[in-house]
Specification:
Elements (H helix, E strand, L loop, with lengths): L5 H26 L20 E2 L5 H10 L5 E4 L2 H6 L12 E3 L7 H14 L5 E6 L24 H10 L1 H13 L8 E3 L2 E3 L8 H15 L8 H20 L3 E6 L4 H9 L3 H17 L9 E5 L31 H12 L16 E3 L8 E2 L1 H18 L1 H11 L3
Parallel strand pairs: 2-3, 2-4, 4-7, 7-8, 9-10
Antiparallel strand pairs: 1-5, 5-6, 8-9
Helix pairs in contact: 1-6, 2-5, 8-10, 9-13
Length: about 400
Amino acid sequence: MQQMSARLYLVSLAAMIFAGLALIALMGLGVDAYGVFGTRLIPASRFPPQLRLVAIGDRLTKGLEIVQRHDDRLLFIGDSRTQHGFDPDSPALGGIKAYNTALAAATLSEQLDTLDYALAHEPSVTHLVWGLSFEIFPSRVATTTDYWDSAFAGHSLLSSRLHHLFAFDFVEASFKALLQARKQVEAPMKRNGVVNFPSDPVEGPGIARYHDLELASESRELRGPRPPAEMQAAQDRLRRRLAELKLKGIDVDLVIMPVHAWRLEFYRLVGVETELADWKRGVAATVGALASAPGNGKLRLFDFERPHLFTEQPILSPPAPGERRFFLETSHFYPWLGDLILDRVLGTGQGEAGPISTPPFGAEIGAGGDASGKVDIEADLASAAAGLDVWEAAHPGDVSHVKEVIGRP
């Protein structure tokens, strides 16, 4: 047998590698699972072109997606609560073109970077709905996300596209989508940046279990207050950015995001209820202080993180007849609850019909009293604490259950 020369071997090896990479690239382009190339060949009946697979981090995808956007007037900013809960196609927006830039586990620092990037590529934006969450507000950008490889961190768009073609997790997802395309691709997807929920959640015993697992996991992460200096530094960063946005004439609605009553009870049990209240005071003070700052942008603050019949929806039993489940688990809510929030914030009167709400869901925070419809922050905090007291008294079984889940006596 004639021995292959070293040169021929290297040429053959290079050709095989090139052919393999070419096949991977062709699959990625033809499936276009994350919708970043515009080359999807799978019929719309099996993989709708407006839907994109959800990546764990989503930074790489959204960095590319934002560049492709045009003429958006409203942006949603925030973390995974905003990403899951606010639909840019909600009727509550009254037809305003919008996009959801929110990212899972995005701290304030990362939200500011994302905002800068989005406004640089979409100068048409005049309104922000900014979802705020207490837990990760002062934290640094996580090293475990794909932020550091994305355009938000300064990497080129070419680098992001190459990741989508050749990184293992993206290739694996494209291959799975290709296999499913014989019938219809079934995977978590998003549309205009928001997680897509094509139907109501399945009810059953697993719902409570899912809530338990999420709350137990969080109990290992959030115990006791964070350093006051870190919290104050984050408050200062928020104040500076809001002042800049107001000066540019961009309206900002800050929304303290709702969580389930189990999670409010968890805050109380692990000793961060006071810190949570101080955080809300800080945000309210910032909005109040900027009322007379230069600029035509309007700043408003709404608090939905408080007891209410929507946030108190039972977990250990099915919802009331005809009522959709509002929470995936104690921290994240579905977009049909988001529609009710947006209808309250934007006042379009076009949100999805929901249960009659007395008292109203959420409160606008600020000076003015009953005539303006605003609530003083101290009154809001006192009402929220009293509401949780009432819920505890009426739901001793739930309180015991939460204690058991998080390992509290």
